[in-house]
TrEMBL record:
Native source species: Amphiprion ocellaris
Protein name, per record: HELP domain-containing protein
Signal peptide: 1-15
Family of the protein in this entry: Belongs to the WD repeat EMAP family.
Annotated localization: Cytoplasm, Cytoskeleton
Pfam families the record matches: Beta-prop_EML (PF23409), Beta-prop_EML_2 (PF23414), HELP (PF03451)
Coiled-coil stretches noted in the UniProt entry, renumbered to this chain: 38-72
UniProt domain EML-like second beta-propeller: residue ranges: 520-787
Main location: cytoplasm
Taxonomy of the source species: Eukaryota, Metazoa, Chordata, Craniata, Vertebrata
Gene Ontology cellular component list: microtubule; mitotic spindle
WD repeats: from-to residues: 430-462, 513-554, 642-683, 754-789
Keyword Signal: yes
Amino acid sequence: SLFLSFALLPSTVVSDGDTNKKLQMVLATYDTVSASSNMDMEDRVSHLEQRLQLQEDEIQLLKAALADALRRLGYCEEHNQGMQPGGSHAGRRPLATTGSAAPTKGLGHFKHELSPFPHFRKSMSTEQLTLVRREMAAESRSRTTSSSSSSGGKRWMDGYVRMFLRGRPVTMHIPDQQRESYSIDQKVALPDHKLKLQWVYGYRGRDCRSNLYLLPTGEIVYFNASVVVLYNTEEQQQRHYLGHNDDVKCLSVHPDMVTIATGQVAGNSKDGKLLAPHVRVWDSVSLNTLHVLGMGVFDRAVTCVAFSKSNGGTFLCAVDDANDHILSVWNWQKEKQLADVKCSNDSVLAAVFHPMDTNLIVTCGKSHINFWTMEGNTLTKRQGLFEKHEKPKYVLCVAFAENGDAITGDSSGNIYIWAKGGNRISQVVSGAHEGGIFSVCVLKDGTMVSGGGKDRKVVLWDHDYRKQSEMEVGDSFGPVRALAEGKPGELFIGTTKNAIIRAAFPDTLTPIVQGHTDELWGLDIHPSMEQFVTCSQDKQVHLWDTNSHQPLWSKTIEDPGRSAGFHPSGAVLAVGTMTGRWLVLDTDTRDLVSMHTDGNEIISNVKYSPDGNFLAVASHDNFVYIYAVTENGRKYSRVGKCTGHSSFVTHLDWSKDSKYLVTNSGDYEILFWEASNGKHVTNMDTVRNLEWSTSTCTLAFNTFGIWPDGADGTDINAVCRSHDGSLLASADDFGKVHLFSFPCSQPRAPSLEYGGHSSHVTNVAFLHDNSHLISTGGKDTSILQWVVA
């Protein structure tokens, strides 16, 4: 373009001034042509993008049309095969939903026998195409021979919805009163109510350190699952920072005592995408996120984080869980990494800035303590020298004395003092504790407290490291994990059994936070009071009060717990274990009332009938055992054994009249049973119109809308209907609680989604008055209490 512009100039001789003017004209012309050319290019790109989008939309429509045609053809094939005397469907139980056993994970698609325009699907697995071709054959036959008595015509008249999970067809029959009005394409509204997190039970002390602090607001700050909790112990109120999407692993408070940094692990979203580990810096007053650091930088998890002290907290250091445990330093306000270095091949348990030297960082862990000096973007290491002193297997914690000396506690129970600015031990307190020392905390008056593991003792030391006083934490709360100074004369103690205790020397210990310590599944709600029960693989059963947020009682049982259920009177509760044993406890006294064993597999569900006269015990041995219950839940005699499932039983519900129960299994069967004898009900007319006391089966006509596109049959662990019949809550494998409108009988029903748990959510239940929802986490061991607003 510039060459052409010069060529357009007249070939005359001009002065220097004229030459400058001509050159300016040329440049102006070039700029105009160039801008015009760029605009043309942008228009062309935009036009091509629009055409490409239109073509993609057309392809999607064609795919949908093809999928629907194949589905119709498949329907025909399935029915034709089923009608043949020697077909694969001969002799099948009418209500079983086994279907093909191939393990292909497919999109959960649906078939509605009442609608002539089935719902389009975007894609299907090969196995699903085979199934739907069979379906289409039956649909076609029912149109052409509607007056015949063929099974195809009868199924059409009966009406049902069919979905597929991992290639298996799941058939759900429509109640008579809904058959005429039901349409699978009907739009469903979001629920009228919402959830708001009110309380987090428990604390993560089992595998995290230095995660308990007191803020000037009077709140203690700690974390559990993916929630950072700010708990005002005087006002009995909690606030929650919900910015994380997976397990929080570390926490640090800025010198301004307002800004907080928390680090999390890597995770996976439900669509399989990696959730990167990172550090979030946030305001503890507003709960707003200020900065996010390290997306794509950290590996596996951020295990240590700390603000600098002497320069106003400008810097932040972090250690990740990579093989080399990388130590990095950041200007967190600029979100800029200043330096990083390989810290250690072994585990790193703590990383802190020296309070008097911005450029000095101390790290410790397995068999080491290192002193790092930062110069520019370089970190230089000096190893701590134990010399003549015993070298411990682990240096577990580090703090700083008023004069700048570093203080460490180790796995041998010794306290070492490292002189300021050096890397040698200047003083030793040998045998300060029996077993490891997990925490040391220097108090405002210069004295120090240390917390022991094996001995569970908290010891107070004077300025010269002479023992002044000690107290012992009870065995039920476990070893000391973290220490934080409270109000004058007060301490907060975090323990490895996920409890927080408010303490004062010499012997005042008051638990203020308690929780489970192993995978948690068992949950049920008291039928008439603001209470709920939980049981876990930690062999603990807790009866909780939803107002005080404390356990009314706790009981240790012999086997890991898995399921729980209240008698309708509330007088007793049943607990199922991982070993086939189940027991009955008195709700008031926690005394053992009865104990039984059915098989040696997991008892996945224990549920009393609405009238209290029966107890159903569902097992992973594929059976459901039915017991007659008398004397207000104190006497049990087995009256039936439900035999027919080909996989472990996952969920069950009782009919309102207590005469029938329905069960789901691990291979997506839906079976019905008579309560009085355990007989399998095969006549659909008997159970189609039953009203169910609860809706906890994840596979049922009124709940199947909870399943999202592409769902694996194990993605949803639990579901619960509110007692007024307006809401449905579900618990999934991706740390989410969902809230739906009830009934939830439309495919892929819309829901409100809530985070807080960091692993699979194992159970959900509404309180008896529908005011709250309780949810339990599996590996995160947490219990969350939500207000239904």
